[in-house]
Amino acid sequence: MARLVQKELLDNMSTAGYIPPQLGEAELRKLLLEALDSAPDVNPETYRARFDHLERGLSVDDVIHGLERPWLFERAPKFNRREWQWKYRIATESIEGESIVIVVAVDTGNRSFEVITRWK
Amino acid sequence: MPKQKPELSRVEHLATDEDPFHYLACGLPNVYLVGIKYFTCEDGRVIAEIPAVKQLMRLIARDLVERPDSLSGSEIRFLRKRLGKKAVDFARDLGIEAETLSRYENDKQEPSESLDKLIRLLYAISSDDPELIEQVRAILDSLLAAWKAGPTDVKIVKKIDNNAWTDVPLAA
């Protein structure tokens, strides 16, 4: 086990640079809800929320609803080396109760995250 | 030597009074934001950085509820979604069929004056905006009296100022 951890550490600090640790569901939930509620300049802990493309028929309120209700990761988080961000796929529901996936790409360096919605 | 994080090809912009950001993602066609950053990407995507988005959405809803013009279909849908209500549940609250609500939301039919006012009051008392309840109580008489039918082309403009969303007064 210790050897495995050490290997991961070495991988993360290899020539590709430092990979930030991935967030668990509870940590990600806290980060997202804080960002929806407040401005980063008021609370320095708050990440900057950036909204990318929303699927047709969905609005920002569907994203807020989908992130505030109980949700689970649709699949294991993946580190995107090209954009140097952890990408989290959140399986949740729109206001109408339709299954949607909200992709959240967290940029720890810039303390920001981007949100993209997808129909499931 | 560690590799640098690759730069994404995107251009940063600041939304100004002269060139505000058209905030279509809120679900309304006439909302513009000032003071935010947004990014245009090579592939045509536009990514907007929206601080305190819940406060902003509450402020937009408050504008709709207090405005004397009749609600458009997209405005009715906006208020319903602000409440987090499914169409079928919202229709039940209003005492109408879901199909009728759908016709209102898609501008196929106009709601009556009384239903328009009921939607505003339902939003005001059900929303998470405590200030709105107080304001509606104070302006209830004028709100109910001032309603006028017909579409509006009023722009809603909000500015992020000192970390809080504020109204931008429009020229007459």
Task: Give a summary of the structure in a few sentences.
The complex is a heterodimer of chains A (120) and B (172). Chain A has helices at residues 2-12, 25-37, 60-68, and strands at residues 48-51, 72-73, 78-80, 85-93, 99-107, 112-119.
Count of β-strands of chain A: 6
The percentage of residues in β strands of chain B lies in 15-25%
**H/E topology pattern of chain A:** HHEHEEEEE
Mean pLDDT of chain A: 85
Low-pLDDT stretches of chain B are none
From N to C, what is the helix and strand string of chain B? Answer: EEEEEHHHHHHEE
Gyration radius of chain B, rounded: 19 Å
The tally of beta strands of chain B, per DSSP, is: 7
Low-pLDDT parts of chain A are 1-11
Main sheet summary of chain A:
6 strands, mixed
Number of helices of chain B: 6
3D architecture notes:
The complex is a heterodimer of chains A (120) and B (172). Chain A is of the alpha+beta class and 120 residues long. Helices cover 28% and strands 29% of the residues of chain A. In chain A, strand 5 and strand 6 form a beta hairpin. Chain A has one domain. The longest helix of chain A has 13 residues, at 25-37. Chain B has a single domain, classed as lambda repressor-like DNA-binding domains (434 Repressor (Amino-terminal Domain)), CATH 1.10.260.40. Helix content of chain B is 41%, strand content 17%. In chain B, the strands form two sheets. In chain B, strands 2-3-6-7 form a four-stranded mixed beta sheet, with helices on one face. The chains are: A alpha+beta (120), B alpha+beta (172). Chains A and B meet through strand 1 and helix 3 of A and strand 5, helix 1 and helix 2 of B. Strand 1 (48-51) of chain A pairs antiparallel with strand 5 of chain B, so a sheet runs across the interface.
